Amino acid sequence: MVVTSLKLQDLIEEIRGAKTQAQEREVIQRECAHIRASFRDGDPAQRHRQLAKLLYVHMLGYPAHFGQMECLKLIASPRFTDKRVGYLGAMLLLDERHDAHLLITNSIKNDLSQGFQPVQGLALCTLSTVGSADMCRDLVPEVEKLLLQPSPYVRKKAILTAVHMIRKAPELSSVFLPPCTQLLQEHHHGILLTTMTLITELCERSPAALRHFRKVVPQLVQILRTLVTTGYSAEHSIAGVSDPFLQVQILRLLRILGRSHEESSEAMNDLLAQVATNTDTSCNAGSAILFETVLTIMDIRSAAGLRVLAVNILGRFLLNSDKNIRYVALTSLLRLVQSDHGSVQRHRPTVVECLQETDASLSRRALELSLALVNSSNVRAMIRELQAFLESCPPDLRADCASGILLAAERFAPSKRWHIDTILHVLTTAGTHVRDDAVANLIQLIGGARELHAYSVCRLYSALANDISQQPLVQVAAWCIGEFGDLLLEGNCEETEPLQVEEEEVLALLEKVLQSHLSLPATRAYALTALMKLSTRFRGDNNRIRQVVSIYGSCVDVELQQRAVEYNTLFRKYDHMRAAILERMPLVERGGTRVEEEEKESNKAAQLSEAAAPVPAEPQASKLLDLLHLLDGSSGEAPCPPPQDPPPGGTLVHLLDLPCAPAPPAAIPDCKAFERDGVQLNLSFIRPPETPALLLITVTTTNSSGGDVTHFTCQAAVPKSLQLQLQAPSGDTVPARSSLPITQLFRILNPNKAPLRLKLRLTYHHLGQSVQETFEVNNLPVETWQ
């Protein structure tokens, strides 16, 4: 039984009627076999019908590559029905990856040259879809002629094809400059809209075109003013707004032309004010025009009053009932907060109200903007609002909110006590969501505020007694109780309510932390060390502390076991030195970058080793030096001279010895590697004394210009005899005129001390342009490799 081929409509019905995927595949495979047989027979009358069915099969996701050559045959056919299906098939089945698409170049050229408009439209659509750079260069004369054809139908498609040509072959931009100037005289809506798109593409890709079209800014201003005042045509109006699509496109073009150009910006200031005040905001079309107006005002060199008006428009958007408009307003205000901080501050209450939005994307944007609005004058009020939001915010926002509050408090804290209270509130509310360095920062802050030691330990003890589930809070509280436990017992802190605490209560609380299943190993280590320090702070019997410490001598956790064994040794063999070893920790100064901290640590170690060199020969001092050896745990340094006359009776493993570092090397001078339009890249160098073959390069990128530097990446290369490791940068954005640079660390290993050659590639977006620079740093100091 011979099964005849189906018509397109019957094929669609049968595929839709398939109850399983296997039935669908069976129908398609059977019909594809008929289509192949028809192609082999070469029946020209059936070719376009068979290809139409094959295109439907392709749209369902099944392979249809065997129909590519049939598309070329249909395109070459003189019949319009064949050309229509052939061009559609070419757009669906061909692309630049297949060489077959080049075979239709002559057919497209012939069809563009004939005067039948539907065929010209088909050829232009196909060229703008699958045209490669070579095809665009070959067919640019035909498209240029069609730009000035009397038919609007053909001209619209020719203009859009020119946009595709410029994207594929930017060197063709100069060909389309004269026609664009003539097309601006047109009054047809479609031609004007596509012309604006073409000019925008030209200006973004060619500096010469940008200079050329800045001369027509008055003409563009007049076109837009006509749209705003008298309207264009009723058929292109939406909700009473005259041709919003054309208005938006003109505003985008004006934004590009006025950027960093005083004369062009001056010519459009009055018009932008008119658009901003006369546009109806009751519909989405009017809101879209106002939003583009705001973006244009902020990008050009507009007057100060106009910028305030733009921010006020965004403030009105925040009150809109449409969530999408509120989201756009929050995102735009976040972009403007660096350049127009004062204007955005006026809308701070409305922004804070947006924190309570149920939509997660809105509340996240409101949180980012609220954190950006914090400054020294409003830090108390804003942190209070953010703390209230932290208590009820969704879990996915809690980490960002907590980190933002900590950063704002560190930057704008009016007093140390307020700073400590703020961090304590964050740790109490969302301690598990804070950054890893929150514990170290708070310990540093409390240690440096001598007058607040009693106040801090009382507050932390009360917080720990109420909740031991927040691990960062427990760690800070354990450290503080261990350091200042004697102040806790005195209870003479005048800034808080009197707190009467007994020694047994404090010890019981720390034991509770040690035994809690919620405690992390690091938290238990804090608590164990706190108990050990309290053995010198409290006046009572230390038997309870010794019992707890001895229990952890056989703990499964290696860190806790090591601490417990060392502390037991202190009790048993070196009890007479326990008070000196467990005295309060000195204040450690905070450094900047990690490299600077490493350098400071090595310098301090060298000074300590020099100071510790002339050690007396008494057994007591020798024991103290050996025990200090246990409290450091450094390795890889030069060995210190052994203590003289060690006493009999057992020695400890030197786990905590003070490192004996060599003298710090001479500083290597910094060098400037790159500078362009306010973007500067500086290199600073450090060679660690313990590994002379290692060079640490800190790359610091600053921006003193008026535009943000975004999507910044820095890549490096060195000769094969050297080993290079690039660490992750601190960010990819440098705000305009900002003191917040991007830093990145390079680690270069040069065991043979070969002359250092460094090649850098920088990629970033700045002032509306994409910048890529590749260069070799020629002014590296010789100290970097000798």
UniProtKB/TrEMBL annotation:
<dbReference type="InterPro" id="IPR011989">
    <property type="entry name" value="ARM-like"/>
</dbReference>
<keyword id="KW-0968">Cytoplasmic vesicle</keyword>
<dbReference type="GO" id="GO:0030121">
    <property type="term" value="C:AP-1 adaptor complex"/>
</dbReference>
<dbReference type="GO" id="GO:0006886">
    <property type="term" value="P:intracellular protein transport"/>
</dbReference>
<keyword id="KW-0653">Protein transport</keyword>
<dbReference type="InterPro" id="IPR008153">
    <property type="entry name" value="GAE_dom"/>
</dbReference>
<dbReference type="InterPro" id="IPR008152">
    <property type="entry name" value="Clathrin_a/b/g-adaptin_app_Ig"/>
</dbReference>
<dbReference type="GO" id="GO:0016192">
    <property type="term" value="P:vesicle-mediated transport"/>
</dbReference>
<dbReference type="Pfam" id="PF02883">
    <property type="entry name" value="Alpha_adaptinC2"/>
</dbReference>
<feature type="region of interest" description="Disordered">
    <location>
        <begin position="592"/>
        <end position="615"/>
    </location>
</feature>
<feature type="compositionally biased region" description="Basic and acidic residues">
    <location>
        <begin position="592"/>
        <end position="603"/>
    </location>
</feature>
<dbReference type="InterPro" id="IPR016024">
    <property type="entry name" value="ARM-type_fold"/>
</dbReference>
<feature type="domain" description="GAE">
    <location>
        <begin position="666"/>
        <end position="781"/>
    </location>
</feature>
<comment type="similarity">
    <text>Belongs to the adaptor complexes large subunit family.</text>
</comment>
<dbReference type="InterPro" id="IPR050840">
    <property type="entry name" value="Adaptor_Complx_Large_Subunit"/>
</dbReference>
<keyword id="KW-0333">Golgi apparatus</keyword>
<dbReference type="InterPro" id="IPR013041">
    <property type="entry name" value="Clathrin_app_Ig-like_sf"/>
</dbReference>
<keyword id="KW-0813">Transport</keyword>
<keyword id="KW-0472">Membrane</keyword>
<dbReference type="Pfam" id="PF01602">
    <property type="entry name" value="Adaptin_N"/>
</dbReference>
<dbReference type="InterPro" id="IPR017107">
    <property type="entry name" value="AP1_complex_gsu"/>
</dbReference>
<dbReference type="GO" id="GO:0045202">
    <property type="term" value="C:synapse"/>
</dbReference>
<dbReference type="InterPro" id="IPR002553">
    <property type="entry name" value="Clathrin/coatomer_adapt-like_N"/>
</dbReference>
<protein>
    <recommendedName>
        <fullName>AP-1 complex subunit gamma</fullName>
    </recommendedName>
</protein>
